[in-house]
Write the structure tokens for this entry.
Amino acid sequence: MLRQRQGPTAITVDNGSEFVSRAMDAWAYAHDVRLDFIRPGKPVENAFIESFNGKLHDECLNSHIFASVAEAQVVLNAWREEYNAVRPHSALQDRTPAAVGALWVDSREARESTAIKETGIELEITGASVAFRM
């Protein structure tokens, strides 16, 4: 991903063992990415990832028993592709994440901000606003 797009300046993570590891810390340091840990016991501080994790577990991890790492990679890659490129998301006005991402890439400039308003999500792209109404 870092080869295709500019990397993040920070990643918000919870205090699970997968995020309190030396490997994650070393990767973040090597890529100049700050790790912002949510407060213990406060999953609402990272509600989007908590929702995603629930979907991943319910739709994929809980319904498979993997015989090998290779099998897990194949199944997870297929689920990721379906989640990002095929399945429309109501929060994105029934668009796929890939379709919304294409709007940002097509702008040829970095997105300044994403504002969540009562009427929907508004993306500010190169001075023009594209609103997704809910």
Notes: Residues 69-86 form the longest helix (18 residues). Strands lie at 10-13, 34-37, 113-117, 120-125, 128-133. The helical segments are 22-30, 47-59, 69-86, 97-106.
